Design the sequence.
């Protein structure tokens, strides 16, 4: 069943564990993500980033996606999540990741997303508040959850506090929750996006603790989110590089630190990079072990893209030859089927591991099955 993300985060907060939130960029990824959560009886948060919606709208040059592309893509992702998730025994939220503006959020909600992030973190505080507030005003009457962001995700060298720190100021975080009425807040406390997070990242857990503690004192019923939290499994990086890849300086957040913050007020942990790495490794392995597929008329071009982009690990770089399958889930022949198998196994390997480590396994029955309409009524009663 699809639920607003808030219902899943309430359960994580109550149970003092973190819910992983996993990015998807293709129908097959949504399917595999739902299946592995079902296997572990875990609630699921699937997220489509703003650009992922553009890609799913058919734009292989997704950085240039228009609003129309994003609308089309958001609907395709949402249709896939509904197809595989509507009758699923687990609660599933579909969340827009790093929404750029109100239009992106509206496109996602109209497509069928049950939660949106508005990322105003690059704006001055008051402008970020105003933008986030605008999205809350649009989303809450529809029962849709809203995540904001405050603070800029740190550069790898920025592991100590300084006056110019871009870490989230706990006092400002409280003000942000109060002024916007958002449900969840992405904070900057030492993590960063991508595969190059630095060799010895040290999360400033005290920032999460300070914000969460202050929220309790102030009666703020919201949740904290850890972005840029891939662990960048070294075994996968080694495997890619052993097959000719050039993934250099790749380091993630140590899993022990993520487990630690999951008990310090972080309720949602975002992971994308790890999935990208696993899927890329699987595709390289497929062509290594099945040389005849390099000449395949349907997927041979994927092999050439893998060989031409040795530093890349975003599967969207390699998927253009199979865009119809990416966006619809249709599998025209066995060769394309073997690529989709790589995608599904990669998604399941990474998500399965993290469901167990973050502690969301077995929690699906604890999540309240609340509809968007019911959630809208609650916001109305509370006046947010
Ligand atoms: O946090 C960013 C996610 O990894 C999404 O990446 O904007 O390239 O789709 P994207
Ligand atoms: P990673 O790049 O660490 O996977 O972060 C993903 C993320 O924060 C998505 O919003
Ligand atoms: Zn992020």
Sequence:
């Amino acid at each position: 069943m699809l639920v607003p993300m808030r219902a899943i985060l309430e359960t994580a907060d109550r149970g003092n564990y973190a819910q992983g939130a996993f990015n998807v960029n293709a129908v097959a990824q949504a399917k595999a993500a739902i299946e592995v959560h079902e296997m572990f009886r875990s609630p699921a948060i699937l997220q489509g980033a703003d650009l992922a919606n553009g890609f799913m709208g058919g734009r292989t040059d997704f950085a240039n996606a228009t609003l129309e592309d994003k609308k089309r893509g958001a609907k395709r992702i949402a249709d896939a999540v509904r197809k595989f998730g509507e009758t699923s025994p687990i609660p599933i939220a579909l969340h827009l990741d790093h929404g750029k503006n109100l239009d992106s959020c509206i496109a996602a909600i109209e497509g069928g997303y049950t939660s949106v992030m508005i990322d105003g973190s690059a704006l001055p505080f008051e402008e970020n508040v105003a933008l986030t507030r605008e999205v809350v005003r649009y989303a809450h009457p529809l029962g849709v959850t809203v995540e904001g962001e405050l603070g800029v995700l740190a550069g790898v060298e920025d592991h100590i506090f300084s006056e110019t720190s871009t870490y989230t100021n706990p006092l400002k975080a409280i003000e942000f929750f109060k002024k916007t009425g958002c449900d969840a807040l992405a904070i900057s406390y030492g993590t960063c996006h991508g595969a190059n997070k630095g060799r010895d990242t040290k999360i400033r857990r005290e920032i999460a603790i300070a914000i969460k503690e202050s929220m309790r004192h102030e009666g703020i019923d919201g949740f904290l989110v850890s972005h840029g939290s891939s662990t960048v499994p070294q075994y996968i990086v080694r495997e890619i590089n052993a097959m000719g890849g050039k993934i250099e300086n790749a380091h993630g957040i140590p899993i022990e630190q993520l487990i630690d913050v999951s008990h310090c007020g972080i309720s949602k942990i975002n992971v994308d990079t790890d999935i990208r790495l696993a899927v890329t490794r699987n595709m390289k392995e497929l062509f290594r072990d099945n040389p005849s597929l390099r000449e395949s008329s349907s997927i041979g071009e994927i092999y050439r893209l893998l060989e031409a982009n040795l530093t890349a690990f975003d599967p969207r770089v390699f998927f253009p030859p199979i865009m119809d399958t990416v966006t619809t889930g249709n599998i025209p022949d066995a060769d394309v089927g073997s690529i989709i198998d790589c995608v599904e196994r990669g998604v399941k390997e990474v998500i399965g591991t993290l469901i167990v480590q973050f502690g969301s396994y077995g929690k699906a029955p604890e999540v309240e099955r609340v509809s968007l309409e019911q959630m809208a009524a609650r916001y109305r009663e509370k006046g947010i």
Observations:
- Residues 15 and 284 are 40 Å apart (CA to CA).
- The chain has a mean pLDDT of 96.
- The longest helix spans residues 334-358.
